[in-house]
Amino acid sequence: MSALTPDSPVGQEILQSRLLAVLVIDDVDAAVPVAEALMAGGVKAMELTLRTDSALDAAKKIRTELPEMMLGIGTVITEDQVVQVADTGAKFAVSPGVNPAIIRKAASLDLPFGPGVMTPTDIDVAVREGCRLLKFFPAESSGGLKHLKNISAPYAHLGLKFVPLGGISTANLTEYLGNDLIGAVGGSWLAPRETIRDKNWKQIEENARTAIGLIEQ
């Protein structure tokens, strides 16, 4: 129920979204405006990273005021954070790597969870914990789609799907999404940290609209 899989309800939502905005939010007051800008541009799913002190409060604000946004939380690396994320009401959580203790803690709280993978060993551990929808991170610097094809080949019969993050942009997003291994892609270029700090909601909406346009083509 809690491990992310392509055929789980939350997994299906992620696959249907095709695109996740990866956010670092420094100011709680920016949470709703940035989410609104993304949605106005057609992006309806996000990974809000736990890289700032404002992240959890920002997540709660989005969940309360924009429940239609599919909110996931990223950079979940401790068991305490798993509990905190579950308390926000987030739909799912992800981590940069594979830690069975974190996956099991999420399972105990019925929090859909997807670990980050970069090697065959990572995939093996994740699969043993029941995960089938996996974050591929960092995607481009580890070898991109070619690398993913190689490391996932021994597990092809399991029907795994991947969400690459790290180095994804308008230049390569359609290449990734054109491959059957890919369930969705994520990127911080949609709403860069500095753009959020500058409250340039128009730019974020335009970034989202451009990306969605590429996907729809």
CATH class membership? Alpha Beta
> What percentage of the residues does DSSP assign to strands (E)?
15-25%
| Count of the separate structural domains | 1
Estimate percent helicity: 40-55%
Structural class: alpha/beta
Radius of gyration: 16 Å
**What are the secondary-structure elements, in order, as H or E?**
HEHEHEHEHEEHEHEHEHH
Order of neighbouring strands in the sheet with most strands:
5-4-3-2-1-9
CATH architecture label: Alpha-Beta Barrel
State the low-pLDDT regions, or none.
none
Contiguous helical run count:
10
Q: Which homologous superfamily in CATH is the superfamily? A: Aldolase class I
Q: Mind summarizing the main beta sheet? A: 6 strands, parallel
Q: Total strand count, please? A: 9
Distance between the termini: 34 Å
CATH fold annotation: TIM Barrel
What is the mean pLDDT?
A: 97
Broad shape: globular
What do these coordinates show?
- The structure is a single chain.
- The protein is an alpha/beta fold and 217 residues long.
- It has one domain (9-216): TIM Barrel.
- Helices cover 43% and strands 15% of the residues.
- It contains 10 helices and 9 strands.
- α2 runs parallel beside α10 and α4 (79-88) runs parallel beside α5 (100-108).
Features:
single chain; alpha/beta; three-stranded parallel sheet
Summarize this structure briefly:
The protein is of the alpha/beta class. The protein has ten helices and nine strands.
Task: Break the fold down into its secondary structure elements and pairings.
Layout: H1 9-17, E1 19-23, H2 31-40, E2 45-49, H3 55-65, E3 70-74, H4 79-88, E4 92-94, H5 100-108, E5 113-114, E6 116-117, H6 120-128, E7 133-136, H7 144-152, E8 161-164, H8 173-177, E9 185-187, H9 193-197, H10 201-216
Parallel strand pairs: 1-2, 1-9, 2-3, 3-4, 4-5, 6-7, 7-8
Helix pairs in contact: 2-10, 4-5
